[in-house]
Amino acid sequence: MTKLLLINAGSSSLKWQLVNMPAEHVIAAGQVERLNLPGTIVKVEVGHQKTKEVVETLDEIAAIDRVLKRLITVGGVQTLDEVEAVGHRVVAGGTLFKGPIKLTPSRIDQLRGLSELAPLHNPLEVKCIELLAQRLSGVPQYAVFDSAYFQGLPEKTAIYGIPYDWTKKYQIRRYGEHGISHQYLANRAAEMLKRPLSELNLITMHLGSGASITAVKNGQPFDTSMGLTPVTGVMMGTRSGDVDPTIVPYLMKRLGMETPEVVIQELNASSGLLGVSGVSSDMRDLHDAAKSNQRAKLAMDMFVNQVVKLVGGYYTEIGGADALVFAGGIGEKDPVIRQSIIDGLGVLGIKINQKLNEADHTGFLEAQDSRAKVMLIPTNEELAMARDVQRLMDAEK
After folding, report:
1. 159 found inside a domain
2. What pLDDT was estimated at residue 15?
3. Which residues contact residue 349 at a Cβ distance below 8 angstroms, ignoring those fewer than 6 apart?
4. Rounded to a whole number, what is the distance in angstroms from the first to the last CA of the chain?
5. For substrate, which residues are the binding ones (predicted)?
């Protein structure tokens, strides 16, 4: 058995698991929510025992150190020497990395060079990799890429309406993100529907602080909402989602900014739910604020509308869907948003069972007369990562 530590560092949360492989037995797991926000939430689960504490604001690096300490204090391991390998979720692999890899110093440098493709993620993930290389010296580390799942998108959905020579010369295309999650959701949906994945059309929605939507046609990814970088698609916690590109030079002139990077940073870190509401990037905060704050309500309404618009477009693009799948922090835990999205799709004949939805019922949520299944599937990126890392480790033997 190999004790594998999995690190899934996102834009607002950090999830982790300690897993015995290849048995896929989860020894301990946890999540640090509301990173870089007041009242960071730290959750740990060992067996059937769960703990939750609210602490002062933690950044990602402090969260990693806390995870390592908790591994020992909660009984996951007696010493960190028992951790035999580490697997990391990395958002952007570009065209350099089309599958999972074992990390080396030169490959870490290459990841750092891809930061433009995921400015909120890749630099953070490199920091996590380097920190764990220090804390767990000599332990092999592996990277599993979100973008790998979308390498096979058909060209008509993968590229942009720019000069084709630019597309090829500069490798400009829709790389997509959350691919680990979308792939897991598609496979799990097929299992639950008891049908071969190759026969299914699905729309998977990973809705959290980072949000993306993917159309799956005949079992294969056909289109996805994130593009060259994760700032595109639907508006997110702090990311703008799709905007007119001429906004960048327009704002540079109006705000006296000298470089486009400053504007891009604002589109990544100060926009989305936070920018529109002026309250928070966390949907839970907006629910509370919306009772008296019209901007908070507007931000929520915009989010729902953009999801509806994309899902409706994908539904026609792939010729209808067998199932719509909700996942992610919002998708799994916010029945109000789920209800609002499905209500917005009512013209397609898709309906939700209100009681099942309000109970956060994992599995099937559709009403009896719904044209498509509506599913809530808690994503398990860590399990998908563990399987990829195990395959690499087996190949090394």
Report:
1. no
2. 87
3. 370, 371, 372
4. 14
5. 89
The answer on 139 and 12 residing in a single domain is: yes
Q: Active site includes 81? A: no
The whole domain housing 295 covers 194-376
Whether pTM exceeds 0.85: yes
Annotated binding-site ranges: 8, 15, 89, 206-210, 282-284, 381
Residue 387 forms part of a structural domain: no
Give the annotated binding-site residues for ATP.
15, 206-210, 282-284
pLDDT of residue 75: 67
Query: Both 124 and 198 in a single domain?
Result: no
Determine the pLDDT at residue 153: 96
Whole-angstrom distance, CA of residue 199 vs CA of residue 306:
28
CATH of residue 50's domain is 3.30.420.40
Rounded CA separation 228/153 (Å): 13
- Among 150, 179, 205, identify where a domain stops: 150
Strand partners, 16: 7, 30
Cα dihedral value 353, 359, 362, 367, nearest 10: 0
- pLDDT by residue (tens digit) across 318-362? 999 999 999 999 999 999 999 999 999 999 999 999 999 999 889
- Residue spans of the chain under pLDDT 70: 11, 75
Q: Identify whether 396 is part of a domain.
A: no
How much is the pLDDT for 189? 98
The answer on 317 and 227 residing in a single domain is: yes
Q: Considering its fold, how many domains does the chain have in total?
A: 2
